[in-house]
Fold these 2 entries.
Entry 1:
Amino acid sequence: QINEAKNQNLQVIVSCHNINDILLAQQFRADYATISPIFQTPNKGKPMGINGLKDIVNDSRITISLIALGGII
């Protein structure tokens, strides 16, 4: 569905929860990836924390724009 949306010149945001999800979103030409949860959020799984987010942001393979979500108050 990402390719279909991109072929119609739509912006695509993909929900991701780890580095592999982000790399796959890039491969499919998504414009943005959300990464979550950063902090504890009810029913959203184990948070990655600031250090986990830093690891992703500093990974040289990541070229897609990221949006951090999850428990940020």
Entry 2:
Amino acid sequence: MIQLAIAGAAGRMGRTLIEAAHENPQTQVVHGFEQPGSSHIGRDAGELTGIGTNGVSITDHIGSIDFDTLVEFTSPAATVEHIEYCRANRRQIVIGTTGFSEQDQEKIEQAAQDIAIVLAPNMSVGVNLCLKLLEVAAEVLGDSVDIEIIEAHHRTKVDAPSGTALRMGEVIAAALDRTLADNGVFSRHGRTGVRGDKDIGFATIRAGDIVGEHNVMFASSGERIEISHKATSRMVFAHGALRAAVWLSQQEPGLYSMENVLGLG
């Protein structure tokens, strides 16, 4: 059984992960922690989540209890700090945090020389299947279509476009021998001129409690193909993260994606 530590255990995603791990016979939460000063420090993680007492008291430090794998859905700054601990103590880590800078990404890649890491902007099995479908669609349709990516999330999400939308764009760009640096269009306002033939457009919506929606259009004259994914519960991300944690337990040090976990890449 994989013994898990949950970062941000009292948050919405942390609670969902604790609930999912409780239902998964291959995983056990042995440690949950929050930022120092949190009002949830000392509370039983199971009671907080609603699954009943599980004997895991929420602490204010990652290193207070031994574990096999850290599951991380927090902020870039916190994640990078936690990675350093995991690297020093040879703990594996599943990262669903988004919004990393290039410098943060370099630190993750360096840590992966010593520990096994799954890094994915979206842990949903469905989203990662969509990534494969997008690759195929881009290869088949080539330069004959206009490509637009529309994403929607809850009003408290702080990065835009979403990490998932960016990953979708990267997959499409790679299949078409383009880059988002050259062809990504992230803002349109006023008289923008005619759309570029190789543009990959992004549109962002932030509203209410939308868990996560992504829609990719491949549009030409006379027809439009759309590949969409809509998440209605954070549980889909939690189940994917736990699947990654179980898979990671059998891997050597390295940086892996959900495509690797699912055997898609």
